[in-house]
Amino acid sequence: MGWEQIVYDVEDRIATVTLNRPEKLNAWTRVMDREVREAMAQAAQDEGVRVIVLTGAGRGFCAGADMDLLAGISGRGAAGGDEARQPPPAPAAGTRADFQGRYAYFPTIPKPILAALNGPTAGLGLVVALYCDLRFAGDAAVFTTAFSRRGLVAEHGISWMLPRLVGLPHALDLMLSARRIDAAEALAMGLVNRVLPQAELTAGVRAYARELADLVSPRSLAVMKRQLWTAQLQTLAEATAVADEEMRRSFGTADFKEGVAHFVEKRPPRFTGR
Fold it and tell me: I want to staple 161 with a disulfide (CB 3.0 to 4.6 A). Which of 96, 130, 178, 237 is the partner?
């Protein structure tokens, strides 16, 4: 498949999706939106892929929505707002409503999505990063919600996502002020999982991804990812009931047998995802 605004490659069972408008700090467009969705679907269906890395080309991750797009919406007033609210592509059958939003589909991808945040991560770019499963930042990365400084609001579910990651007080601070924070502050408040020296970001994220790809059951990854995201919307009793059923199912899988065998035999695992 030919790509206009992303780069997609697979190596060592890791699919890397790179936002590729470096001259615009990878500002988000409708084309990029469509291509990222298609790349995620391709990685999800590829049995040779076990982990997905999302990053940006050049010196930024994503500076937010493309300003030409925002200017066009602004010029059309309420009509432009209606255009911006066009529904996302139809979800797969059985997808719960919570994960049917335009950027909320990442939790439905049955493989870990790691964000490698290599520079400015702002507005819609921050929303996309929050929907990834884990976030690694270079020490030169900066973050801002941006919305209040554009006359906008807490878009695309960030009012639900952000407090769950950093707590309500931090979320209010970041949303209301739209101030810029550096990677160290982002780590301290829990916005990112890890900060790495800028020159080591790509290698560090790939090393973590390789560990998941080589040492962990892909079936376990898929089931646990689904459990953890869905548990945010369940009671403890509901989450426990799901866990009990998933545990019962796991006992009959090839990956469970291999998980025991490689430990007993003191050798690297050969998981198949079955």
Answer: 130
CATH number of domain containing 191? 3.90.226.10
274 found inside a domain = no
Whether residue 83 has pLDDT greater than 50:
no
Lookup: tokens for 217:
């059951």
3-state helix, strand, coil in the chain (%, to 5): 50, 15, 35
Cβ proximity of 151 and 70 under 8 Å: no
CATH of the domain at 252: 1.10.12
pLDDT tens-digit readout, 241-257: 999 999 999 999 999 99
Q: What's the CA gap between 42 and 1, in Å, rounded?
A: 10
Distance CA 67, CA 221 (A): 37
Q: Looking up tokens 């309420």, which residue turns up?
A: 78
Q: Which domain holds residue 127?
A: 6-213
